[in-house]
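Same chain as my last thread, 279 residues:
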Amino acid sequence: MSNSIVAGRAVELAPGVRRLVAPNPGMMTGPGTNTYLLGEKEVAVIDPGPLIEKHILATQNAAPGPIRWILVTHTHPDHSPAAARLAAVTGAELLGIPAPPGKVQDRTFVPDRQLTDGDFLETDEFIVRAVATPGHASNHLCYRYEALRWLFTGDHIMSGSTVVIDPPDGNMKHYLESLQKLKTLDIAALLPGHGPQVDNPEEVVDGLIAHRLKREAKVIAALEAHPGLEFTDLTPFVYDEVDTKLHRLASRSLLAHLLKLEAEKRATGSSGRWSLSKI
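reply #2:
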């Protein structure tokens, strides 16, 4: 088994499980989007990635058998746009949840079968269970490979970094609840949408929850010290350790924290200015 990340080269992670990395590296995508292929005689593809023809061809070439199913974790432009094209050339069934409202959504993804929490894809070779994990995206699903107890996490968990929670579709309260939900599952490894396999899932999930709650505490402290600011003006106080070039992105997650606090009646936003709620 190899855990190295090289775009365009299919790597066997376990018998019947392959990873192929799309050639779309970047600040938000790391080495590129991970496309996973499950099965030998008949193949399921998880997250075919962006609409890049050479990646679609590489996915077809990496499949040891006919591609029968295409599963999508969510409809952001680095995960699902290749799905419709790959289905058109293979006849595969599309599975997932349609795109929610919003500009940064792939509306070309129209599932043949809409999945809900706990739904299964059962084949002669493997069983995959859908796990609803809203937060990063409202239509986000993870997929648990039952025999291996591996969880394909899309952007719910990325290897080595945190994900942006971008309102209104991104929701910090839902994201933390979805992280907690993973602790109720029996997971041996995490297979993220970007980066290498994670073999200490419990530690990583606990670490992500602790990180978000620590950031929330900084939001509360910033509101105490600087009441009445807009969320963009709060960003330098809450993300003081983060490169200022990343503050625009960080401010979106900050807004998600504020909206969570508002939903919990711990903060109030009036005319775009935020303060702690008076008890």
